[in-house]
């Protein structure tokens, strides 16, 4: 007598996510491919275009990471409060957070670019802060959506970050501040503490994500998948905002690439300004289909040039 065929196992949440975003990834890939060189020589002589993209993209990371930290810092629940979901503790992975690294990169870039460019970056940050606010509020009110942001944003860095970092490093020490040591360059966003260049952090994050995903209800899993798909639309909104504010003016980027008209001639479609930061999407997502300002200088802490609080962190 033939043995019964075992029932197929249900896909994990990660498998559901990889399948769900394939079309969105393809569309965004087409939008952003081949944009990276435009923030590097010979198209520009300094990292101002890259800095502008980083300043806006970081709103997405700070938005969900601040919400996550806020929820984890809540005191123990009582009869009148809602407990912090256990899956948020499960998912928390050492050396994973990006927002402090991004803050240090922005600080170092502003120091290199000088006071005039720093003012422009501050204006751009303020003008696009709504991306942070909306992301923070959404994740604070719906904690299970943190899994959508974590999976989408972290795996993009894990899988595409090495490629984009290597391309950025080709610009050389003069472009990134003059130090021959790459550890001094403002590219910490793409680096992870430890000896495995993030591979160990990725393995641990994926392991924790699978456990956390099993703690969600079916409706919450569906919400996470839907939000992951929507995040691609959020990236496109970031692109459009940068295109409008930086390319069309408003005082943020008139000097880059020899002036706004020169920039217009180079940019043949929306999204190019942020392409240097988002280029990793093209290669990264398809493959998955904290923390001192003085990381290189002994400083006890304080605030960076743009007023962002900094703390100590293990050196990458």
Description:
Keywords: Heme, Iron, Metal-binding. One of its GO terms (molecular function) is metal ion binding. InterPro entries: Haem_Oase (IPR002051), Haem_Oase-like_multi-hlx (IPR016084). The protein is mainly α and 316 residues long. The protein has one domain (27-74, 84-310): Heme oxygenase-like (Heme Oxygenase, Chain A), CATH 1.20.910.10. 57% of the residues lie in helices and 1% in strands. The protein contains 13 helices and two strands. Strands 1-2 form a two-stranded antiparallel sheet. Helix 3 packs across helix 6.
* Biggest β-sheet strands, sense, barrel: 2 strands, antiparallel
Please provide the ordered H/E string of secondary-structure elements. Answer: HHHHHHHHHHHHHEE
Can you list the strand order of the major beta sheet?
1-2
Runs in which pLDDT lies below 50 for 5 or more consecutive residues are: 251-316
Write the layout of secondary structure elements.
Layout: H1 13-20, H2 22-32, H3 48-72, H4 86-91, H5 99-113, H6 115-127, H7 130-141, H8 146-169, H9 199-214, H10 218-247, H11 260-266, H12 275-278, H13 280-288, E1 302-303, E2 309-310
Antiparallel strand pairs: 1-2
Helix pairs in contact: 1-10, 2-13, 3-5, 3-6, 3-7, 3-8, 3-10, 5-6, 8-9, 8-10, 8-13
GO molecular function, one term: metal ion binding
Organism: Cyphellophora attinorum
Keywords: Heme, Iron, Metal-binding
């Amino acid at each position: 007598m033939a043995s019964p065929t075992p029932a197929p196992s249900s896909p994990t949440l990660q498998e559901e996510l990889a399948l769900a975003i394939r079309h969105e990834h393809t569309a965004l890939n087409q939008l952003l491919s081949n944009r990276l060189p435009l923030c590097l020589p010979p198209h520009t002589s300094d990292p101002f275009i890259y800095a502008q993209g980083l300043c806006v993209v970081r709103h997405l990371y700070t938005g969900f990471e601040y919400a996550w930290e806020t929820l984890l810092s809540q005191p123990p629940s009582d009869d009148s409060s809602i407990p912090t979901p256990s899956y948020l503790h499960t998912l928390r992975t050492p050396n994973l957070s990006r927002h402090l690294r991004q803050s240090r990169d922005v600080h170092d870039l502003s120091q290199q670019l000088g006071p005039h460019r720093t003012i422009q970056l501050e204006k751009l940050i303020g003008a696009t802060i709504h991306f942070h606010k909306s992301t923070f509020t959404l994740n604070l009110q719906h904690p299970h959506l943190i899994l959508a942001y974590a999976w989408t944003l972290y795996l993009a860095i894990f899988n595409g970050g090495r490629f984009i970092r290597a391309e950025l490093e080709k610009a050389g020490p003069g472009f990134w501040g003059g130090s021959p040591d790459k550890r001094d360059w403002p590219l910490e966003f793409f680096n992870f503490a430890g000896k495995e260049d993030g591979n160990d952090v990725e393995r641990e994050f994926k392991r924790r994500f699978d456990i956390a995903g099993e703690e969600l209800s079916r409706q919450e899993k569906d919400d996470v998948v839907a939000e992951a798909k929507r995040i691609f639309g959020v990236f496109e909104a970031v692109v459009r905002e940068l295109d409008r504010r930086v390319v069309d003016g408003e005082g943020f980027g008139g000097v880059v690439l020899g002036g706004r008209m020169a920039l217009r001639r180079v940019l043949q479609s929306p999204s190019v300004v942020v392409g240097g930061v988002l280029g990793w999407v093209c290669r990264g997502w398809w493959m998955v289909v904290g923390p001192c300002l003085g990381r290189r200088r002994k400083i006890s802490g304080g605030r960076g040039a743009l007023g962002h609080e900094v703390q100590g962190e293990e050196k990458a």
